[in-house]
């Protein structure tokens, strides 16, 4: 939707136009029913028989008539009003409706030429639905025009707002099922309108579809008194328009009027902001649509009410293959749409059916906004040299890694100021996570009042903060799926809140990779900071490194996990992640001052390897295998490992120690299990086959065992990590409580290197004594031991 006024609102559709809309809607309903039931005889050219029916009846009819109504009327305003549109179908199990409409408009056959827009193609459309080797019952990546799977309810509206951000000409219609409206994420999503800039962003038109029921119960919003529902929606900041009924022609007229009024109102609000100087937050229109569940389906089956009840949710006639009465009802139901008026003898839709359908890329199934890779441009990332820290000697200077990264992100934000295709989202933690340099290039998005005491708030800001991880995730997913770039910054422990959301996105990416017509999109990038080892001040509730475990369970071609140990490696990893496509990248990095270990060039080489030997940190001379391998992954484990290596160098100088650092966690997997995995020969060269390996890991130790369990040296692998021992304490006490500290690592070396225990008994005792001194010191002084707090690398 451009800034220009566009065509004036018509006085309303004529009787002829209403008849055409009804014909299109009836055709879509017919096709939706056919997909659920039929595997043959798509045009009903003969009476239905048992052999025409699928052996397994799957799918959801109840929501489909309402979705078909919305699709039909969106076609009308796209064609008659020049609206640039994208649709998000919240009741995603209404897949039959969206598939039906994309077939009617021709976008389905254009995407899948084997499924033509004729009788044979209709038969294929029917048979493939929820059939082995076919397509899912939900609106899925395989569905043209979709960006939202919808199988897991709650995220439609936040995806819609993410899609509208920085697409000023776009109207995103979002159909919200009244069952979905009961979820927590959807309830929070109504507040997204407080972040939508009417000047630079598009518009979202929510359609709350109240058909009264979910799978087995009534829904809350459908049973609210009308005045209470209206007060709720107006309280959320919307001006609702109401459409309802069960008589099709009157509903068509009401829906057409509501759509026209909504489009007019959107244009008025955008013109007021873009050319009239109105800086107030708009109260955007929305539509409340009340139609019966399973509308136009069987009113009653076996003496039990169906239409307008929860029983219409899935398959209203479940016994069609076994009951002649059900089979007769199905045929009567399908013929009630008068298919002979809708399709010609060859199965092609008649002109009246298609008279409301737009053409080309204006079709909802063909819009490039739903295939975001078509719109994606490379991100202008500046050279890293200007942001890297200088490292004269490892382990002597300190920087805050995420603050260093913040400088790079500011430069990216500045470079995209005109393009507006990069955003950073996070739950109220941008400054806390040391990324506040971003405010040198943009502010935080905010449409409400701004007080003199507020900082960095503006209508056009491209940093987005809201205290809902669900909204952050949904906004960014919608933004990426429509062709832009971004980063999600979050406290590590609370990334778990979006576990199931990232599941769905990973599945979407995995499926999309197998569809040649889906173009790659920018990766979903997480920066997890304020992590477990430096949440000593917030305590146990903020200490959980398990998001990484969750991610590494997922599709290996999609997921990547990086644990950069210092500022320069974080820059290198971030540069790679921001340039990548079709991945979910999880980067875990600290925000507190930490040692610099590698120069930028060393960091680049190390990150390219993903894991490697730090020769400068060990004491092996290359003449033989090391006596022990000290491995580490994560910034604090790296610090403790280097401190342990320093202690071994001083106390047991004859010991040949190898230090290995892992940045890319997937490198520990076999090559057969993950594209980044090491072949066995490479793993054996780094970790050896027989040498004890003491592995200090950022998260739960059993993850390392799971990743490496098939390696030859697994029996020699001993892992230290977080084991749910947390509280409010000192930073070093966190590692001591979890047996990840330098003294424990030295003790592990002495315990596990053959023959060393007897020779180094005094050293082991000294390490144990240091742990005892630590416990006494922190309880008296409230700070860590000076030998720990003031330590620097002396190797």
Automatic annotation (TrEMBL):
Its cofactor is thiamine diphosphate. Residues 14-374 form the Xylulose 5-phosphate/Fructose 6-phosphate phosphoketolase N-terminal domain. Residues 591-793 form the Xylulose 5-phosphate/Fructose 6-phosphate phosphoketolase C-terminal domain. Keywords: Lyase, Thiamine pyrophosphate. InterPro entries: Phosphoketolase (IPR023962), THDP-binding (IPR029061), Transketo_C/PFOR_II (IPR009014), Xul5P/Fru6P_PKetolase (IPR005593), Xul5P/Fru6P_PKetolase_C (IPR018969), Xul5P/Fru6P_PKetolase_CS (IPR019790), Xul5P/Fru6P_PKetolase_N (IPR018970), Xul5P/Fru6P_PKetolase_ThDP_BS (IPR019789). Pfam families: XFP (PF03894), XFP_C (PF09363), XFP_N (PF09364). It comes from the Bacteria. Its EC number is 4.1.2.-. PROSITE patterns: PHOSPHOKETOLASE_1, PHOSPHOKETOLASE_2. It is an enzyme of class 4 (lyase). Belongs to the XFP family. This is Probable phosphoketolase.
């Amino acid at each position: 939707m451009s800034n220009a006024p566009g065509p004036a609102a018509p006085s309303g559709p004529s009787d002829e136009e209403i008849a055409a809309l009804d014909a299109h809607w009836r055709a879509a309903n017919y096709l939706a029913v056919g997909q659920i039931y039929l595997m043959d005889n798509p045009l009903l050219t003969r009476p239905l028989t048992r052999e025409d029916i699928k052996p397994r009846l799957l799918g959801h009819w109840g929501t489909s008539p309402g979705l078909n109504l919305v699709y039909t009327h969106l076609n009308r305003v796209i064609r008659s009003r020049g609206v640039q549109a994208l649709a998000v179908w919240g009741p995603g199990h209404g897949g039959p409706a969206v598939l039906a409409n994309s077939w009617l408009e021709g976008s389905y056959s254009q995407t899948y030429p084997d499924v033509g827009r004729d009788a044979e193609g209709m038969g294929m459309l029917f048979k493939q639905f929820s059939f082995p080797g076919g397509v899912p019952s939900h609106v899925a990546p395989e569905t043209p025009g979709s960006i939202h799977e919808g199988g897991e309810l709650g995220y439609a509206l936040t995806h819609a707002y993410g899609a509208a951000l920085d697409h000023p000409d776009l109207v995103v219609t979002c159909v919200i099922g009244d069952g979905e409206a009961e979820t927590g994420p959807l309830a929070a999503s109504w507040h997204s309108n407080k972040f939508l800039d009417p000047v630079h962003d598009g518009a979202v038109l929510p359609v709350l579809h109240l058909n009264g029921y979910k799978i087995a119960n009534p829904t809350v919003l459908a049973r609210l008194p009308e005045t209470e529902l209206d007060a709720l929606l107006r309280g959320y900041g919307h001006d609702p328009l109401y459409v309802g009924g069960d008589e099709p022609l009157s509903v068509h007229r009401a829906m057409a009027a509501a759509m026209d009024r909504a489009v007019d109102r959107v244009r008025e609000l955008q013109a007021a902001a873009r050319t009239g100087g109105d800086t107030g937050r708009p109260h955007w229109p929305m539509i409340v649509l009340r139609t019966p569940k399973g509308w136009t389906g069987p009113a009653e089956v076996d003496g039990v009410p169906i239409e307008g009840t929860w029983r219409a949710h899935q398959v209203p006639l479940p016994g069609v293959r076994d009951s002649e009465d059900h089979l007769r009802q199905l045929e009567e139901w399908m013929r009630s749409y008068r298919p002979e008026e809708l399709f010609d003898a060859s199965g092609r839709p008649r002109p009246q059916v298609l008279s409301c359908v737009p053409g080309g890329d204006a079709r909802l199934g063909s819009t490039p906004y739903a295939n975001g890779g078509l719109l994606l441009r490379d991100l202008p990332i500046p050279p890293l040299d200007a942001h890297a820290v200088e490292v004269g000697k490892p382990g002597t200077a300190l920087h805050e890694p995420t603050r260093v990264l913040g400088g790079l992100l500011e430069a990216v934000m500045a470079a995209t100021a005109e393009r507006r295709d990069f955003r950073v989202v996070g739950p109220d933690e941008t400054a806390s996570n040391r990324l506040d340099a971003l405010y040198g290039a943009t502010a935080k998005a905010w449409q409400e009042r701004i007080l003199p005491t507020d900082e960095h708030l503006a209508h056009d800001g491209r940093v987005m903060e809201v205290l809902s991880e669900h909204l952050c995730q949904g906004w960014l997913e919608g933004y990426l799926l429509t062709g832009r770039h971004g980063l999600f910054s979050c406290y590590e422990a609370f990334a778990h809140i979006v576990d199931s959301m990232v599941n769905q996105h990973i599945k979407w990416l995995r499926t999309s990779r197998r569809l040649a017509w889906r173009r790659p999109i920018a990766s979903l990038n997480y920066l997890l900071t304020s992590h477990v080892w430096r949440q000593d001040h917030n305590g146990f509730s903020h200490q959980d490194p398990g998001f990484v475990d969750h991610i590494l369970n997922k599709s290996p071609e999609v997921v990547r996990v990086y644990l950069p140990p210092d500022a320069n490696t974080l820059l290198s990893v971030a540069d790679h992640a921001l340039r990548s496509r079709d991945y979910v990248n999880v980067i875990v990095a600290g925000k507190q001052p930490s040692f610099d270990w590698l120069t930028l060039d060393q960091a680049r080489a190390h990150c390219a390897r993903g894991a490697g030997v730090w020769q400068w940190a060990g004491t092996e001379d290359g003449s033989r295998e090391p006596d022990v391998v000290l491995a580490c992954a994560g910034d604090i484990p790296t610090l403790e490992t280097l401190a342990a290596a320093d202690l071994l160098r001083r106390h047991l100088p004859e010991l040949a120690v190898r230090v290995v650092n892992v940045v890319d966690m997937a490198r520990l997997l076999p090559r057969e299990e993950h594209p980044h995995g090491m072949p066995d020969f490479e793993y054996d060269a780094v970790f050896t086959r027989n040498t004890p390996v003491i592995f200090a890991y950022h998260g739960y130790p059993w993850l390392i065992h799971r990743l490496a369990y098939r390696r030859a040296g697994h029996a020699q692998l001993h892992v230290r990590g977080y084991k749910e021992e947390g509280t409010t304490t000192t930073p070093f006490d966190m590692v001591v409580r979890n047996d990840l500290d330098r003294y424990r690592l030295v003790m592990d070396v002495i315990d596990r290197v053959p023959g060393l225990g007897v020779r180094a008994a005094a050293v082991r005792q000294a390490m144990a004594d240091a742990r005892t001194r630590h416990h006494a010191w922190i309880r008296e002084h409230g700070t860590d031991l000076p030998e720990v707090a003031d330590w620097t690398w002396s190797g």
